[in-house]
């Protein structure tokens, strides 16, 4: 895993109660925390603090979260998790389009936010990881190797990246479009059915003939279940 004390998180929200709640919870997890109640302050803090993760509210007076996200992304490779007051598709699409890495709708559980923070660290800052153990999986990113129930899987480069992505985001439903964007890249321009082809191949290598490990969520995408 990683040492949480090495991870810097910037909290940006105009509601002091939310900032205090998040600060207390995340400091108890060991993370380094800085906070801001407006966009200008967030940008100024980020220039000195150099956060790995920014948890950013969309609805703020003055400079909104979308503008702050764009400016933060210009400064560094910070991973941005946006908080929206409503689970609206428009906010989600706009946030992802301007560079946000994830989003959550208020109200949210601290446990889910923590899981998404872990996923962002594993996805975007693998150099901070020694070895990731998730359920029956061991991911050794430096060696591009995944072990399942103690056995090393024989995977192509793309199979490795896809399985790692699915496992790290276990419990979260991932659409084919999002998988294409995050694994193949925004400029890939491929067809979504390529995801089905690779999922089928990975299931065979895992012996997941009943699709109990990598579940198909009809009309939504795929979800890895480890329970």
From TrEMBL:
Q: Which InterPro entries match?
A: CheY-like_superfamily (IPR011006), OmpR/PhoB-type_DNA-bd (IPR001867), Sig_transdc_resp-reg_C-effctor (IPR016032), Sig_transdc_resp-reg_receiver (IPR001789), WalR-like (IPR039420), WH-like_DNA-bd_sf (IPR036388)
Look up keyword Transport and say if it applies: no
Give the 4-aspartylphosphate positions (modified residues).
57
Q: Which residues bind DNA?
A: 129-226
Using the record's annotation, list all stretches that form the OmpR/PhoB-type domain: 129-226
Q: Which GO terms describe its molecular function?
A: phosphorelay response regulator activity; transcription cis-regulatory region binding
Q: Does the keyword Flavoprotein apply?
A: no
What the entry lists under Gene3D superfamilies is as follows: 3.40.50.2300, 6.10.250.690, Winged helix-like DNA-binding domain superfamily/Winged helix DNA-binding domain
Q: Which GO terms describe its biological process?
A: regulation of DNA-templated transcription
Q: Which GO terms describe its cellular component?
A: cytosol; protein-DNA complex
**UniProt keyword annotations, A-Z:** DNA-binding, Phosphoprotein, Transcription, Transcription regulation, Two-component regulatory system
Report the superkingdom from the record: Bacteria
The record's listing under PROSITE patterns reads: OMPR_PHOB, RESPONSE_REGULATORY
Instruction: List each copy of the Response regulatory domain by range.
Output: 8-121
Name the chain's protein.
Answer: Response regulator transcription factor
Give the organism the record lists: Alicyclobacillus mengziensis
